[in-house]
């Protein structure tokens, strides 16, 4: 269904527009037009009664939210909880982020994100792994033992298990 959202202040990324309409076709934003020039195929006009429309935030590093930390509970439920917690503040898309951890936790986090994306969990774009490929001299507060050497047998095994 093609809808027009009207009677709102619309921020397009550069300007704050009034007396414009946001044209939506299903879940896709199709156009932004002056409200007096609605397309002929609009089936529904919705007044937002003076509210605002702004782009959603994309957060490339969410370690947790809603009382959960991704490292402590790398699961689809945790990802949903984190997404819901951040959505309240305008985040519409995000990368669940895992701080450098052991390979088992990394594998569980990757699997959880794959499952979240397959099940269309709202907002999940992929995963952000902080390490383990860190320069040990510049690892910040990361544990040295969790900084991987590219040539280790375990790392190669981990890589091949993910490709399977």
Strands of the widest sheet, in order across it, are 5-4-1-6
Order of helices and strands: EEEEEEEEEEHEHEH
Strand composition percent: 25-35%
Q: Would you count the extended β strands for me?
A: 12
Mean pLDDT: 91
Structural overview:
This protein has 164 residues and is of the alpha/beta class. It is 24% helix and 31% strand. The protein is built from three helices and twelve strands. It has helices spanning 76-87, 103-118, 153-163; strands at 2-6, 9-11, 16-17, 20-25, 28-34, 44-47, 52-53, 57-62, 64-65, 68-69, 91-99, 128-130. The strands form four sheets. It has a four-stranded mixed sheet, with no helix packed on it. Strands 3-2-7 form a three-stranded mixed sheet, with no helix packed on it. It is elongated and about 65 Å long. The model has no long low-confidence stretch (mean pLDDT 91).
Task: Please give the structural blueprint.
Layout: E1 2-6, E2 9-11, E3 16-17, E4 20-25, E5 28-34, E6 44-47, E7 52-53, E8 57-62, E9 64-65, E10 68-69, H1 76-87, E11 91-99, H2 103-118, E12 128-130, H3 153-163
Parallel strand pairs: 1-6, 2-7, 8-11, 11-12
Antiparallel strand pairs: 1-4, 2-3, 4-5, 9-10
Task: Give a nutshell description of this structure.
This protein is of the alpha/beta class.
């Amino acid at each position: 269904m093609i809808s027009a959202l009207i009677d709102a202040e619309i921020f397009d990324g550069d300007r704050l527009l009034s007396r414009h309409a946001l044209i939506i076709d299903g879940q896709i934003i199709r156009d932004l037009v002056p409200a007096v020039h609605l397309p002929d195929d609009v089936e529904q006009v919705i007044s937002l009664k003076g509210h605002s429309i702004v782009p959603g935030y994309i957060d490339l590093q969410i370690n947790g939210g809603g009382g959960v930390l991704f490292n402590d509970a790398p699961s689809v439920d945790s990802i949903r909880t984190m997404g819901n917690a951040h959505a309240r503040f305008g985040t519409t898309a995000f990368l669940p982020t895992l701080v450098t951890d052991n390979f088992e936790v990394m594998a569980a986090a990757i699997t959880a994100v794959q499952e979240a994306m397959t099940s269309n969990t709202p907002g999940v774009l992929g995963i952000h792994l902080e390490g383990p490929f860190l320069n040990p001299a510049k690892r910040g507060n990361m544990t040295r033992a969790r900084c991987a050497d590219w040539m280790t047998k375990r790392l190669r095994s981990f890589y091949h298990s993910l490709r399977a």
